[in-house]
Design a protein that fits this description.
heterodimer, A: alpha+beta, Alpha-Beta Plaits, 2 domains, 5-stranded antiparallel sheet, 8 helices, 26% helix, B: mainly beta, Pectate Lyase C-like, 11 strands, elongated, Glu_synth_asu_C (chain B), Glu_synth_lsu_3 (chain B), Protein GlxC (chain B), oxidoreductase activity (chain B), Glu_synth_asu_C_sf (chain B)
Chain lengths: 298, 228
């Protein structure tokens, strides 16, 4: 099954509540997948700074002294904010690649969950309620975010196999479904130089969209290409720095409900996920059409 | 009239009360408030009762219904009135996929749109949709009537057996073995009755096109014996 949720705010006054609203939506979807949960939040842009969300199986050891060691390795402005098994490293915008390389040498067990100027990603094995609490997601503000609770099918129940997947700056994807041509696509994308961490089918979808957007397509155009090139079942919700997109495969077995008001666009695997949103009674509620791309941009 | 507030009452309490009704008793009346997209609301009823659900429901609302009249004042999730036997279910909003699937009887009225696979494998139910229906509707439908005032999506009536499909708008494409058929007087009469049962007075049966099975797909043909 899997449960997915997404919230794209149009009304800035709701931004302080993004984490709370998204958390409630995801917890409601717990029945759809108890294996792992994750969330991506798009926060405020900090001029000329970038963030790397990292994860470690042994955070106490790995995060200790990391700021100083990164600075000594030439990442002069690095600062690190640990949150349970994850940490957000803030660096100068042009030092993402250098930081990634330094991390690989200094802390080989640390995994980079996502990078970008505004996006942070948190995901772990466990129930949504526990995962969200662990990372204090309710306290986070932001412009948009997506979340996922997983019932694993195509790869193991691990932190790395949890969604959202991020394969490009400020890009992330959550998936309900299963792809059938992901092994071929993974090989093709690897040849194009796109890095993937796992054997997971959904990560391939994220990498595919990254590859298409690298060619100059916007999110809407990349999602349209996905309808031709991805084989299998999917409902995707995708975030970029300023955008939010939804697409379903032509058979559209995997459920999806959307709601839009003047204040937000919301997505849920089921209507239950949306019932606590402000003004939902008067929202336009609809089921996204099969093989149809929906996207919004700030 | 008993009122069940699903924000404060367990769904099971509602369904247990509905199941406890006497199937030979007087007609009862129930109201359900704050369904908040809950699954399996008012399923498995087997007694004369009017159930008014004030809000949107999740999966399988009114499933296996027998005798009861159930009205959803909101949208319905996947599988509404699945396997209904008799009675009437009215959805004031839209219905998600496989509305009325495998149902043997009764009347399902969807006042908004129905999405994909509406009436899949229907076995005798009458379904009236005031809006549009999605792709693969009436797939392998065996008997009953599907009436659509709007348009139908791709592959309407694929692998159809003996159900009758009446569409007033456009059909995006017909599925395998589904063909357009003549509207004979008995079909006009039948459709008139279905529209009237669904409370529709401003649409004439003559505005519809009938579709049904070409009866080629599932028949054994002796000339093809070598191929079997």
């Amino acid at each position: 099954m899997c449960g997915i949720v997404g919230l794209f705010l149009k009304d800035k006054s709701l931004e302080p509540q993004l984490g709370t609203l998204l958390s409630e939506m995801l917890v409601t979807m717990t029945d759809r997948g108890p294996d792992s949960a994750g969330i991506a939040i798009y926060g405020a842009d900090q001029n000329n700074l970038a963030k790397l969300t990292i994860q470690s199986p042994d955070p106490e050891t790995d995060f200790a002294g990391l700021t100083d060691e990164l600075r000594a390795a030439g990442i002069s402005n690095a600062s690190i904010l640990p949150k349970s098994t994850h940490a957000v490293i803030t660096v100068a915008a042009d030092q993402i690649d250098a930081t990634r390389k330094a991390l690989g040498e200094l802390r080989p067990n640390v995994r980079v969950m996502g990078t970008g100027s505004v996006m942070e990603i948190y995901k772990e094995v466990g129930l949504p309620k526990d995962v969200l609490e662990r990372f204090k997601i309710s306290d986070m503000s932001g412009t948009h975010g997506i979340g996922h609770t997983r019932m694993a099918t195509e790869s193991a129940v691990t932190t790395l196999g949890a969604h959202p997947f991020s394969t490009g700056l400020d890009q992330c994807l959550v998936h309900n479904g299963s792809l059938s041509n992901h092994n071929n696509l993974r090989r093709e994308l690897s040849h194009q130089g796109i890095h993937m961490e796992t054997e997971n089918d959904s990560e391939v979808a994220a990498a595919y969209l990254t590859g298409e957007m690298d060619k100059g397509k916007n999110l809407g155009e990349a999602l349209t290409s996905a309808l031709d090139d991805l084989d299998g079942f999917f409902t995707f919700v995708v975030g970029t720095k300023s955008g939010f997109g939804v697409v379903r495969d032509p058979i559209a077995c995997k459920p999806a409900v959307m709601a839009e008001t003047d204040a937000y666009v919301a997505f849920g695997s089921e209507y239950r996920a949306l019932v606590n949103l402000p003004g939902i009674e008067d929202a336009r509620v609809w089921e996204p059409e099969p093989a149809t791309v929906y996207f919004w941009e700030h | 009239m008993p009122v069940f507030d699903l924000a404060t009452t367990e769904l099971r309490a509602l369904n247990a009360s509905l199941h406890a009704l006497d199937k030979n008793g007087e007609n009862a009346e129930f109201e359900v408030i704050n369904p908040r997209g809950a699954h399996a609301v008012a399923v498995g009823i087997d007694a004369p009762v009017d159930v008014h659900i004030k809000g949107s429901v999740g999966y399988y609302c009114a499933g296996m219904n027998e005798t009861a009249n159930i009205t959803v004042h909101g949208h319905a999730g996947p599988g509404v009135a699945e396997n209904m036997m008799s009675g009437k279910v009215v959805i004031k909003g839209d219905a998600s996929q496989y509305a009325g699937a495998t149902a043997h009887g009764g009347l399902l009225v969807i006042e908004g749109n129905a999405s994909s696979r509406c009436g899949i494998s229907m076995k005798g139910i009458d379904i009236v949709v005031k809006g549009n229906i999605g792709h693969m509707s009436a797939f392998m439908a065996q008997s009953g009537n599907l009436v659509v005032l709007g348009d139908a999506g791709d592959a309407l009536g694929d692998s159809l057996y003996e159900a009758r499909l009446f569409v007033r708008g456009k059909v995006k494409s017909l599925g395998a073995d589904c063909i357009k058929k003549d509207m004979r007087p008995e079909h006009i009469e039948l459709l008139g009755k279905l529209l009237s049962d669904a409370g529709i007075t401003d649409v004439k049966p003559e505005e519809f096109t009938r579709y049904g099975s070409a009866r080629q797909l599932y028949n054994f043909n002796i000339d093809n014996a070598d191929a079997y």
